[in-house]
Amino acid sequence: MPKISNSNRRVVLAKRPKGLPNENTLRLEEVGIPQAGEGEMLLRTAFLSLDPYMRGRMNDAKSYAEPLKISEVMTRQVMTVSMDDSLRRVREVFEKHGFHHLLVLDRRRVAGVISDRDLLKHVSPFIGKLSERSQDLSTLNRRVHQIMTRDLVSASTDDTVESGAALMLQNGVSCLPVVAQDGRPVGIVTARDLLRFVTNSD
Questions:
Q1: Which of 74, 119, 162, 175 would disulfide-bridge 60, Cβ 3.0–4.6 Å?
Q2: Helix (H) or strand (E) holding 145
């Protein structure tokens, strides 16, 4: 039997082209293979076809093909913490998983966001150093609700990539939680994810 790979290679839109697409338009990524949920199946793509109709999907404008939606570029695996979790717990999650943003849940609904920058602002820089004191360690006992961003700016799966980027720029945020109608999280999009679709930078 052929050996089954543990990774998935996918071709994604790296940035919206102006004029003809070039070698920087698409990007090859290697990610983990997701687990199929209840009522789902996991399929293997044998061939990839780049058809002319796809050119219209690269633009956020009326076309016979729909523009790219946030649901097509968002990260579906989101890391969450609760309102009453300690900053010690938040630091552990950041260090273990390497994410830069965590969604804060209140009764399973998104209530705010906490970033690695928020954490750095509110814990002592002397933790883990020779000069560490008990009061430095006590900063890790603070709770998420004390430092999280409460003015939530979010998107839905039906929003376009370009409208999401505009929303982030208007509000000065670095990520967009993607939430369902009932407020539960379904994904997250960061500034880096969106800007590579709507700007000319790599």
A1: 162
A2: helix 144-147
Q: What is the dihedral of CA 16, 21, 22, 27, to 10 degrees?
A: 50
Spell out the residues 6+ positions from residue 201 whose beta carbon is closer than 8 angstroms to its own.
Answer: 15, 195
**Residue 134 is which amino acid?**
S
- Tell the residue number behind the tokens 């500034």, with chain if given: 191
CATH topology (fold) of 1-67: Quinone Oxidoreductase; Chain A, domain 1 (3.90.180)
Question: Residue 54 has which token pair?
Answer: 């796809």
User: Cα–Cα distance between 144 and 91 in angstroms, integer?
Assistant: 11
- Look up residue 120 and give its two tokens: 């750095």
> Residue 92 contacts by C-beta under 8 Å, 6 or more apart in sequence?
none
What pTM did the predictor assign? 0.62
Could you list the pLDDT tens digit for every one of the 202 residues in the chain? 456 667 788 787 777 777 777 888 888 888 887 777 777 787 777 777 766 666 666 665 666 556 778 888 888 889 999 999 999 999 999 888 888 899 999 999 999 999 988 888 888 777 777 776 777 788 888 899 998 888 899 999 988 887 888 888 888 888 999 999 999 999 999 877 766 665 543 4
Q: Where are the domains of the chain?
A: 1-67, 80-198
